[in-house]
Specification:
- The chain has 276 residues and is an alpha/beta fold.
- The chain has 11 helices and 5 strands.
- It has a 5-stranded parallel sheet with strand order 1-2-3-4-5.
- β3, α6 (144-150) and β4 form a beta-alpha-beta unit.
Amino acid sequence: IMIEIDNPGHAGSWCKGYPDVCPSAQCPEPLNPATNATFDLIDGLFRDFTGGARGGGVVFDNMLHLGGDEVDTSCWSSTPSVAQWMKDNNLTPDQTYEYFVRRSQAIAHAQGRDVVGWEEIWNHFGTELDKSTIIQQWLGGSTISQNATAHGYRVLWSTDGVWYLDGLTTTWATMYSQEPCTGIPDNLCDTLVLGGGGEMWGETVDTSDIQNTIWPRLAAIAERLWSPRDITDLAAAKPRIANFRCLLNRRGVMAAPINNPTARSAPPGPGGCLVQ
């Protein structure tokens, strides 16, 4: 289990309990870089999971995902107190983002964790990142994995458009056909491509449809990650994923038919799970 505590973006909900860590009630994120209260809260929150030391805490994995993605700095510029702080410290909004990410990462490192971050941190810092940093590729068409591994950094692969489960028109076959190590030498693939994942975001799902949005397509991603790289035959994989879908149904998991052109849509007609 790897915990993601995304910051400074995607953190507006923190304002409900800790209003001081947000620029303002009207402009809640990115988190406020101009107060130590923000970083004190981050330190305490990390410590809840890490126990403050490598190998400790409630999650023993020594990786901590800090996000760092999709940060719109306009709230910093439009909030007078933060804008003044940036001016006083001679920082642009982009430099403030770098300041925030570096300080958050330093807290994680002090608690014995290797930092994982979305590819935006590579775009900003490149080889200035600590060598223990793990970069997660997600942007469609990105070549971050090739670039980062060439410089000795570890990566995770979960590219939007092909491994994002909220992409409802992406079929299991498309997901199965992906190769995270494309363009990466075998020796770097074996040592630096740690794996990947199918991402399921919550904007278009709730309890009524999350299971049949995820399943059985996530199984296609899982088999690609757990199998030798030469196991790529779609025709051979199809009966396996069909049988797995039936197994999930028997166990009460509402996995969708594998032949649907759109995830979580209804079967085209009656019949058993293997023929739908």
